[in-house]
Amino acid sequence: MKLKSVCVFCGSNNNASPRFLDLATELGKELSQRKIQMVYGGGDVGMMGKAANAMLQNGGEVIGIIPEHLMKREVAHKGVQTLHVVPNMHERKQMMFDLSDGFICLPGGFGTLDEFMEVVTWKVLDLHDKPIVLANLDRFFDSLISWIETANRNGFIYPCSTELYHVVPDIPGIFDYFDSI
Protein backbone atom coordinates (compact mmCIF):
# COMPACT_ATOMS: atom_id res chain seq x y z
CA MET A 1 0.00 0.00 0.00
CA LYS A 2 1.48 3.33 -1.04
CA LEU A 3 0.37 6.10 1.29
CA LYS A 4 -0.03 9.50 -0.33
CA SER A 5 -0.94 11.33 2.87
CA VAL A 6 -0.80 10.62 6.58
CA CYS A 7 -2.33 12.44 9.49
CA VAL A 8 0.08 13.11 12.34
CA PHE A 9 -1.29 13.44 15.86
CA CYS A 10 1.21 14.95 18.32
CA GLY A 11 1.73 17.46 21.08
CA SER A 12 1.40 21.21 20.62
CA ASN A 13 3.21 22.28 23.78
CA ASN A 14 6.55 24.06 23.40
CA ASN A 15 7.53 22.68 26.82
CA ALA A 16 7.76 19.14 25.44
CA SER A 17 11.02 17.33 26.01
CA PRO A 18 13.65 18.38 23.44
CA ARG A 19 14.04 14.69 22.59
CA PHE A 20 10.42 14.50 21.42
CA LEU A 21 10.71 17.76 19.50
CA ASP A 22 13.73 16.28 17.70
CA LEU A 23 11.76 13.12 16.88
CA ALA A 24 8.96 15.22 15.37
CA THR A 25 11.58 16.92 13.18
CA GLU A 26 12.93 13.50 12.17
CA LEU A 27 9.42 12.39 11.20
CA GLY A 28 8.83 15.51 9.10
CA LYS A 29 12.11 15.00 7.23
CA GLU A 30 11.33 11.36 6.51
CA LEU A 31 7.79 12.08 5.33
CA SER A 32 9.07 14.76 2.96
CA GLN A 33 11.82 12.50 1.59
CA ARG A 34 9.22 9.82 0.89
CA LYS A 35 6.91 12.39 -0.74
CA ILE A 36 4.10 11.62 1.70
CA GLN A 37 1.86 14.59 2.39
CA MET A 38 1.38 15.47 6.06
CA VAL A 39 -2.06 16.38 7.40
CA TYR A 40 -2.04 17.74 10.94
CA GLY A 41 -3.69 20.12 13.39
CA GLY A 42 -2.34 23.31 11.81
CA GLY A 43 -0.24 24.68 14.66
CA ASP A 44 3.22 26.22 14.58
CA VAL A 45 4.08 25.16 18.13
CA GLY A 46 5.43 22.09 19.91
CA MET A 47 5.90 18.85 18.04
CA MET A 48 3.25 19.96 15.54
CA GLY A 49 5.34 22.95 14.51
CA LYS A 50 8.58 20.98 14.43
CA ALA A 51 7.15 18.29 12.14
CA ALA A 52 5.54 20.86 9.83
CA ASN A 53 8.69 22.98 9.65
CA ALA A 54 10.85 19.94 8.85
CA MET A 55 8.41 19.01 6.09
CA LEU A 56 8.52 22.51 4.60
CA GLN A 57 12.31 22.84 4.87
CA ASN A 58 12.67 19.56 2.97
CA GLY A 59 10.16 20.32 0.22
CA GLY A 60 7.24 18.38 1.71
CA GLU A 61 3.57 19.23 1.34
CA VAL A 62 1.67 20.12 4.50
CA ILE A 63 -2.05 20.55 5.10
CA GLY A 64 -3.00 22.12 8.43
CA ILE A 65 -6.49 22.08 9.86
CA ILE A 66 -7.20 24.32 12.82
CA PRO A 67 -10.43 25.36 14.54
CA GLU A 68 -11.16 29.08 14.78
CA HIS A 69 -10.86 29.10 18.57
CA LEU A 70 -7.29 27.73 18.41
CA MET A 71 -5.96 30.20 15.85
CA LYS A 72 -4.07 32.16 18.51
CA ARG A 73 -3.62 29.52 21.19
CA GLU A 74 -1.86 27.06 18.87
CA VAL A 75 -0.39 29.84 16.76
CA ALA A 76 -1.66 28.79 13.35
CA HIS A 77 1.17 27.93 10.96
CA LYS A 78 1.02 30.56 8.23
CA GLY A 79 3.74 28.87 6.15
CA VAL A 80 2.01 25.63 5.21
CA GLN A 81 0.77 25.20 1.65
CA THR A 82 -2.82 24.74 2.78
CA LEU A 83 -4.36 25.88 6.06
CA HIS A 84 -8.04 25.13 6.62
CA VAL A 85 -9.73 27.10 9.40
CA VAL A 86 -12.80 25.19 10.56
CA PRO A 87 -15.54 26.09 13.05
CA ASN A 88 -14.80 23.44 15.70
CA MET A 89 -12.80 20.42 16.84
CA HIS A 90 -15.27 17.93 15.39
CA GLU A 91 -14.89 19.35 11.89
CA ARG A 92 -11.10 19.46 12.36
CA LYS A 93 -10.94 15.76 13.18
CA GLN A 94 -13.33 14.81 10.39
CA MET A 95 -11.34 16.77 7.81
CA MET A 96 -8.03 15.32 9.04
CA PHE A 97 -9.58 11.86 8.69
CA ASP A 98 -10.99 12.55 5.23
CA LEU A 99 -7.70 13.86 3.84
CA SER A 100 -5.52 11.02 5.15
CA ASP A 101 -4.64 7.52 3.99
CA GLY A 102 -3.28 6.57 7.42
CA PHE A 103 -2.41 7.88 10.87
CA ILE A 104 0.68 8.32 13.02
CA CYS A 105 0.34 9.06 16.71
CA LEU A 106 3.43 10.60 18.32
CA PRO A 107 3.68 11.58 22.01
CA GLY A 108 1.34 14.31 23.17
CA GLY A 109 -1.32 15.21 25.68
CA PHE A 110 -5.09 14.97 25.93
CA GLY A 111 -5.77 16.14 22.38
CA THR A 112 -3.34 13.65 20.88
CA LEU A 113 -4.85 10.80 22.87
CA ASP A 114 -8.36 11.91 21.89
CA GLU A 115 -7.45 11.89 18.18
CA PHE A 116 -5.76 8.48 18.40
CA MET A 117 -8.64 6.92 20.32
CA GLU A 118 -11.21 8.32 17.91
CA VAL A 119 -9.60 6.82 14.77
CA VAL A 120 -9.12 3.50 16.59
CA THR A 121 -12.76 3.56 17.72
CA TRP A 122 -13.92 4.33 14.19
CA LYS A 123 -11.90 1.35 13.00
CA VAL A 124 -13.53 -0.87 15.66
CA LEU A 125 -16.90 0.25 14.29
CA ASP A 126 -15.82 -0.61 10.70
CA LEU A 127 -15.97 3.02 9.61
CA HIS A 128 -12.54 2.73 7.97
CA ASP A 129 -9.64 0.37 7.37
CA LYS A 130 -6.77 2.87 7.28
CA PRO A 131 -3.49 1.95 8.98
CA ILE A 132 -2.84 3.47 12.41
CA VAL A 133 0.62 3.62 13.98
CA LEU A 134 1.23 4.32 17.67
CA ALA A 135 4.84 5.53 17.87
CA ASN A 136 5.92 4.47 21.36
CA LEU A 137 8.98 6.72 21.26
CA ASP A 138 11.16 6.40 24.36
CA ARG A 139 8.40 4.14 25.77
CA PHE A 140 6.06 7.15 26.08
CA PHE A 141 2.90 5.09 25.56
CA ASP A 142 3.81 2.12 27.79
CA SER A 143 1.12 3.00 30.35
CA LEU A 144 -1.52 3.40 27.61
CA ILE A 145 -0.55 0.04 26.14
CA SER A 146 -0.80 -1.48 29.62
CA TRP A 147 -4.27 0.06 30.11
CA ILE A 148 -5.40 -1.39 26.77
CA GLU A 149 -4.11 -4.82 27.81
CA THR A 150 -5.96 -4.52 31.15
CA ALA A 151 -9.19 -3.46 29.40
CA ASN A 152 -8.75 -6.43 27.06
CA ARG A 153 -8.20 -8.92 29.92
CA ASN A 154 -11.29 -7.61 31.69
CA GLY A 155 -13.54 -7.89 28.66
CA PHE A 156 -14.02 -4.20 27.89
CA ILE A 157 -12.50 -4.46 24.45
CA TYR A 158 -12.33 -7.34 22.01
CA PRO A 159 -9.02 -9.23 21.94
CA CYS A 160 -8.64 -8.42 18.23
CA SER A 161 -8.82 -4.69 19.01
CA THR A 162 -5.06 -4.57 19.57
CA GLU A 163 -4.68 -5.52 15.91
CA LEU A 164 -6.41 -2.30 14.83
CA TYR A 165 -3.20 -0.30 15.27
CA HIS A 166 0.51 -1.09 15.15
CA VAL A 167 2.99 -0.11 17.88
CA VAL A 168 6.53 0.87 16.86
CA PRO A 169 9.46 2.00 19.03
CA ASP A 170 10.98 4.61 16.72
CA ILE A 171 10.60 6.71 13.58
CA PRO A 172 12.13 4.10 11.21
CA GLY A 173 9.63 1.56 12.60
CA ILE A 174 6.77 3.71 11.31
CA PHE A 175 8.02 3.41 7.76
CA ASP A 176 8.99 -0.24 8.09
CA TYR A 177 5.37 -0.90 9.01
CA PHE A 178 3.90 1.25 6.22
CA ASP A 179 6.25 -0.43 3.71
CA SER A 180 5.07 -3.87 4.86
CA ILE A 181 1.35 -3.33 4.28
Task: Write a compact overview of the structure shown.
The chain has 6 helices and 7 strands, in the order βαβαββαβαβαβα.
Structural notes for this entry:
It contains six helices and seven strands; from the N terminus they run E-H-E-H-E-E-H-E-H-E-H-E-H. By secondary structure, the chain is of the alpha/beta class. It has one domain: Rossmann fold, CATH 3.40.50. A seven-stranded parallel beta sheet has the order 4-3-2-1-5-6-7. Helix 1 runs parallel beside helix 2.
Tell me what the CATH architecture is: 3-Layer(aba) Sandwich
Helicity range of the residues? 40-55%
Question: Which sequence of SSEs, written as H and E, runs from N to C?
Answer: EHEHEEHEHEHEH
Structural category is alpha/beta
The top level CATH class name = Alpha Beta
CATH topology: Rossmann fold
What is the CA-based Rg, rounded? 15 Å
Estimated share of beta-strand residues: 15-25%
Terminal Cα separation, in Å? Answer: 6 Å
Main sheet strand line-up: 4-3-2-1-5-6-7
Average pLDDT taken over every residue: 95
User: What summary fits the major beta sheet?
Assistant: 7 strands, parallel
Q: Please give the number of β-strands.
A: 7
How many structural domains does the protein architecture include? 1
Number of helices: 6
As residue ranges, the low-confidence spans are: none
What would you call the shape? globular
